[in-house]
Amino acid sequence: MNPLYKDQLWMRQALHLALLAEGKTAPNPMVGAVLVYRERIIGRGWHHRAGTPHAEVHCIQSVAEEDQQWIAHSTMYVTLEPCSHFGRTPPCSDFIIAHKVPRVVIACRDTFSAVNGSGIRKLTEAGIEVVLDILKPEARWINRRFFTFHEQKRPYVMLKWAHTADGKMGSGTDRRLMISNAFSNRWVHRLRTSNQAVIIGSGTAMQDRPLLDNRLYPDGIAPVKVILDASGAVDPGIPLFQNGASSLIFTRNESLKGRFSDHPAVEVLYSGRGWSIEAVLKVLYEQRIQSVLVEGGKQVLEEWIRDGVWDEAWTIRSDTAFEDPGLAAPGLTRARLQDQFYIERDIISQFVHQENEYYLQDDYSTGGRDI
Predict the structure, then answer these.
(1) 333: Cβ–Cβ under 8 A, 6 or more apart, which residues?
(2) How far apart are CA 242 and CA 269, in angstroms?
């Protein structure tokens, strides 16, 4: 077998392991690892959650007792450069060196400033053979939120909305229009957990009264709720604020602070000049939020699209038509279709911005196939 093809084959196994923790590792990246001896996987692992052991540790610790003699003759395939610093866990590079793994194949460099080549350097200085950039585009794609945050110094921005077969995303009245099916709704809750914050406008908060939680996908981590409320229209009594979840409100109405004084989980951020999209993202970056999901409504979505402040967009198209005038869904510009699949009769489409460097026509998306 061609050596490069062989390395790619095992690295794909590690990438699939990494995705098992999607939505659970932030602020850490998703990482998977396999240990291979003579064309046989003898160890496998992935990073489960921030603060727990990393993929490389799980991988080596998973090796059966009868196979431990082969660790010093095996190759480790890991989707991201092993860390070299003490954080909440010890350095993975030291763990690999201590177990005498002779060869390490790495999908891509970790550009986080505390690592950024130092893990590779540690391994090579210990005499370990290091191979770099095997399936690098795929590895950067699955951690596009992490890399955008550390390299571009801002959160990765996703947009999401649902629309009917005739292009309506709302009724245009106070009546809420239910568009997507129950299974698509559960998928949306999973999508929420893959991001650290969900953004809506005050109109959506007051009219639709969403919870913006992940109750249909409780295995993930609930995102921070972000409300863009220039005029100070949101009411502390709406369901959005009743579960004690962390929330941020951006406003130019200073009186809103007093209104939420008895809501300790809600932080009201006031600016007399108002908040631009860039200013909102700057605050979220400073709060270490790596990715956001902008859910609307129409005015908010169109503003982010018009300003070109988005990386990725998800749309849900139902097979029903509204037929009344209704509220037309936004139109994307400078977009490329990355993926499309069905959830029952709903069509889920994933788009990436033309300038999104992580564009990848492959199967490493947050979506799936026909359900």
Answers:
(1) 305
(2) 19
What is the separation, in whole angstroms, between the first and last Cα of the chain? 35
178, 164 Cβ separation under 8 angstroms: no
Give the range among 18-27, 63-72, 111-120 with minimum mean pLDDT. 111-120
User: Which pTM value belongs to this model?
Assistant: 0.92
Full set of structural domains in the chain with CATH: 3-142 (3.40.140.10), 154-353 (3.40.430.10)
**Buried/exposed 78-92: b ≥16 CB within 10 Å, e otherwise:** bbbbbbbeeeebebb
Q: Is 254 assigned a catalytic role?
A: no
Cis peptide bond N-terminal to 167, omega within 30 = no
Tell which residue, 28, 138, 12, 151, has the closest CA to residue 83.
Answer: 28
Q: Which of 22, 39, 56, 278 is catalytic?
A: 56
Query: 164 by DSSP, 3-state: which?
Result: coil
What are the pLDDT digits (tens) for 116-137? 889 999 999 999 999 999 999 9
DSSP code for 260: T
